[in-house]
Model the fold of this input.
Amino acid sequence: MTRVVCVMGAKDGVGCTTLAVNLGIVWSEDPTERVLLIDADRDHAGDVASQLGVAQLRSWTAARDAWTRWRGAALEGFLAVPSRPLSAVACDTALPTAALTTQLSSAMAALRAQYSTVVLDAGSRLTPDIAAWWPWVTHWACVVTPDPGALHAAVRLLAAWQRAFIAAPHRLVCGNRWGDQAPISVVTAAERLGHPLVFALPDEPLAAAATAEGLPLAMRRPSPGWVYALREGCDRWVAVAPLAPDVVRPEQLFPQLRTERTATPVSTEAAPPSLDGLKDRLLDQFFSEADAATLPAAATPCMSTPNEDPRRIAAEAVMVRVLDAHAAALPATVDRTQLLIELLDEALLLGPLEVLLADPDVTEVMVNGPNEVYVERQGRLTRTAVHFRHRGQLQRVIERIVSGAGRRVDESSPIVDARLSDGARVNIVLAPLALNGPILTIRRFGTTAWTLARLQERGAVTAQRAEQLAALVRARKNILVVGGTGSGKTTLLNALSGCISATERIITIEDAAELQLQQPHVVRLEARPANLEGAGAITIRDLVRTALRMRPDRIIVGECRGGEALDMLQAMNTGHDGSLTTLHANSPREAIARLATLVCFAGVDLPLRAIYEQVVGALDVVVQVVRRATGERAVADVMAVVGLAGDTVELQEVADAPTA
Done:
């Protein structure tokens, strides 16, 4: 069903045309969308053309005549705006309301067959001309700014709109110029209007220049923050279900439209319900009825048997009642049991990602915006058919993850690392850093601990090399595991730790807990980021220093990436033999140079030779792991640190010789 969005301003100057134009361009960025922008505001004819940077648009009459003769590319070419990704048309200023109403009846059928989205710039004055469009409108939006005059005008406009519509679940209020210093908060505005704001766009300094230059904000590179906020809001618009035909009665406001509508009646055949929109409505009712006690505080993947969780059982009872209440709206082809599972997964867990997390072969899930989800199986990347209905659904999953982990992510802090309750590591990146939508990456480590024997079965290490590495760990050699991202450093570190005696006290220090040691005496420490006020951070370096006072036999640092490298070297140099850590590097030689660089991050003023002396005295072995083109991980090199020649650390390969 074609989405027809009527954008009206509460009053002149609130940015109605700017929103309509940029909204059309943002939607047209989707290659599956065919977007038509209509300048329906006769009071300010030409504003749309000006913002698009063209002298004038094709007239409605010329376009309507073309619809009767052309279809497909010919029609799109006729209405296309030069150098702009959408089509546009303007209503004739001299066209009588009666003629417009008559033309709409025949033209809209052809228009809806050609375009997936129609955006109307309806201005800020409620007139019979604007009301004539309403029988075909699926979403009606009121644009308001944070000032008393605009709010008062919006209240009047919403009241008039309410009288004209039989059904009223599809009105949208959009805030514009809602900067940090706005005199009226979003919450206060929603209370005065009696309706929440779908989104509140920030102030945009480039808006005036964009209007003057005829280059819409959505086409500027890099995109302003206003556009990022608009893209986020667009997904919430899509989530609102379409308005069924013939639920509008503008003749209540404009009696002169009665005869015109009678002469050209609108079909009363109900449109097929949108399952996506239905899911959003079902979830909204579920959250309004569910007791907060039934909702988990943190997201838990399927591998943790959520079906047995008492909270899920209680939530399922609520969801069944919600489905019963909407039974008549469910399409006949929908499997109710499967729908119930999908709704519960979205309400309590990670939504469409649950089916991927239930697969034990999936080691990584990568979400590149709502429409692209990739997984890694056995080292190979594969795009899946899984997707999110809209960006808002993905945002809810992200909010569930960060709230359960006690973290925060928003535009002011758009990057966050977190951990699911099963130990899976999560990385999240939001706009304005992520251009294609929220980016979510989940790395899983499985429930079975990695051992050298398992790595040998996978072909990652030979039998001789596995025995060699085990001997080095038992001999309490200090080992540095190096490799690129995703090469298997943490996996090998887990396997090496399995060779440590059960009688030793082991302290693990990590940024995000990933290690799975099986020994009975393990103390696990995890770094903590700063709180909302920017205070309270505990770094890896702080934890390494603390670990030295905890009588450790061995210290295992998940990854050295900063000044903690100096503390780790000092720990290895002062009696804590047998310690293990990892480092990002492409070769053992690069690892030594990078380690020296990280020591400089500690803020100490040491000459390079002194740093290398620390490295030689601390490290015994550097193990290089790689990921091959086939996706398989393997141990590539084992190098012994043998000494210092001038300012060069000497390394010697430890041969993978057959055992006697």
In short: Residues 243-249, 258-273, 297-305 have pLDDT under 50 and may be disordered. DSSP finds 23 helices and 21 strands in the chain. The longest helix spans residues 97-114.
